[in-house]
Amino acid sequence: MADNDIKNLREALKHSPDNVPLLLHLAAILLVQSKLQEAEKEYKKVLRLEPQNTLAKLGLAKTYLQKKEGSTAIIILEELVRVTPQNRDARLMLSKAFLREGSVAEAQEQYEQLLKQDPDFRDDELDSRLRQRAATPLFDDDDDDDDFDFDGEEEIFREMEKPDITFSDVGGMEDVKREIELKIIRPVQHPELYEAYGKKTGGGILLYGPPGCGKTHLARATAGEVNAGFMSVGINDILDMWIGSSERNLHELFEGARANTPCVLFFDEVDALGASRSDMRQSSGRHLINQFLSELDGVDADNEGLLILAATNAPWHLDPAFRRPGRFDRIVFVPPPDVAGRIAIMKILLQKKPVDNIDYEAIARKTEEFSGADLRAAMDMAIEEKLQSSFKTGIAEPITTKDMLQAVKKMRPSTQEWFGSARNYALYANDSGLYDDILRYLKIKK
Ligand code: ADP
Q1: In Å, what is the CA distance from 411 to each residue of 72, 150, 335?
Q2: Pairing of strands 229-233, 160-161
Q3: CA 215–ligand 1 middle distance (angstroms)
Q4: Are 244 and 148 in contact (CB under 8 A)?
Q5: CB atoms within 10 A of CB 420
Q6: What are the residues whose beta carbons fall under 8 Å from the beta carbon of 351, sequence distance 6 or more?
Q7: Are 302 and 257 in contact (CB under 8 A)?
């Protein structure tokens, strides 16, 4: 069948030898048939006609790879990736070509780029080979060895900030603030008192709840409150560590924070790290979790001066090992703000803005279930409308209650969707009443 196709295509090409789609088609069939010399010839013909033809370059690289001429394939693919950095196929093939040539660091770099461009992308071969390698030390601990430099340290230090907000910039959340004060701030400020009473310190607080309700904002404000540094570690950093030289990077991250105490170390979407997902339990994923837990426990180092907070929208995905004493043993629900909270948030948001005698209470009553982020979006919308009319008059007109109410009317609270799934976990996976707060919020339980 394929032979017949080849014959027919060659026949057709006799009549139109410069027909690029026909040539590509023929080359692809030859490649599948492992007629590598002939495939190479056809791809080269295309490139003479169209020197930038991406498909021909990819095909030719693939042909070279099959001919075990990996280094030639790499030259073509590197050029392709340089010209079209978003070309996923080229990067994927380049990563595999490097791997086959034994250049693991380069393979890893390309795969990492791919994952940066498309975090949902996965390739089984690269996943298993690169991660397996990461699980067993690939390199000695020689600092000159930059084969595996994932910019880890650099990024970590870039991420250290000194927030200029404090608890007074966070509206409502009084219970959570109190909890942080007691469990996190005081032990750092008065370690000797805790010691005198033989009270253990250490461990962190895990904040959970619908998105946009101020978890990150409050963590940042905690740092400002005690004039400490703030280091936020997000899912992407974690993913980088997962596929990279994971354990070492994670250790260095903690060390970076320890060297800069007092410092709030904030893990955003911590469920991604402590996921009860089977893939994270394997090989380097499991290693990384264990490493994280021993860093939290302060097994090999002193965590004094570290204020550890984490946030998640999906606490049910968190590995239970994270909740043991001395780790995230306080789990605090951050609900959408109540009326008083919404008033406080709006006052903060509208501070220093031109406003006209706003009836905060009236707006708060119309914004049931709104998150802090929703209120902020409503305010932005009101300001935009005001700007439009101000352009006409040339005067910065003050924002009124009516403007805010109009904006609010166009919105729906973003927290509802979260409660849709949270309700089920709270009802059916509520081990030892962990999620009772959700049930209370939903008035299912008193
Ligand atoms: P989360 O981490 O819970 O998803 P964020 O802390 O990122 O939510 O909140 C998003 C934005 O909404 C914040 O940057 C802040 O501007 C605003 N916001 C949310 N909650 C509050 C609050 N309680 N007080 C003041 N601003 C808030």
Answers
A1: 57, 42, 19
A2: antiparallel
A3: 7
A4: yes
A5: 9
A6: none
A7: no
Cβ-based neighbour number of residue 69 at 10 Å: 15
The H or E element containing residue 298 is: none
Tokens of 260: 């800069």
Round to whole Å and give the CA distance between 296 and 330: 14
Q: What is the mean pLDDT of each run of 10 residues along the chain (446 residues)?
A: 82 88 90 91 92 91 89 88 88 90 85 85 80 43 36 48 94 94 88 83 89 96 94 70 60 86 87 55 63 82 88 85 85 96 96 91 97 95 89 86 95 92 88 89 88
**Any residues with CB less than 8 A from the CB of 251 and at least 6 apart, and which?**
291, 295
Q: Which of 327, 355, 360, 320 is nearest to 344 (CA)?
A: 360
pTM, two decimals, is: 0.66
In a 3-state reduction of DSSP, which class is residue 249?
Answer: helix
Whether the bond into 413 is cis, omega within 30 of 0: no
Cβ of 336 closer than 6 Å to ligand 1, yes or no, is no
Nearest Cα residue to 90 out of 69, 117, 67? 117
Instruction: Report the distance separating Cα 317 and Cα 208, nearest Å.
Output: 12
User: How many Å apart are CA 372 and CA 214, to the nearest integer?
Assistant: 6
Whose CA is closest to atom 6 on ligand 1?
Answer: 214
| CA nearest ligand 1 atom 8, residue | 212
Nearest to 217 by CA among 257, 262, 242, 180: 180
Alpha-helix runs per DSSP H in 266-323: 278-281, 283-297
Using CA atoms, how far apart are residues 218 and 49, in angstroms rounded to an integer? 61
To the nearest 10°, report the CA torsion of 10, 12, 13, 15.
140
Residue 201 Cα to ligand 1 middle (Å): 28
- Strands 306-312 and 330-333: what pairing? unpaired
- Cβ pair 371, 341 in contact under 8 A: no
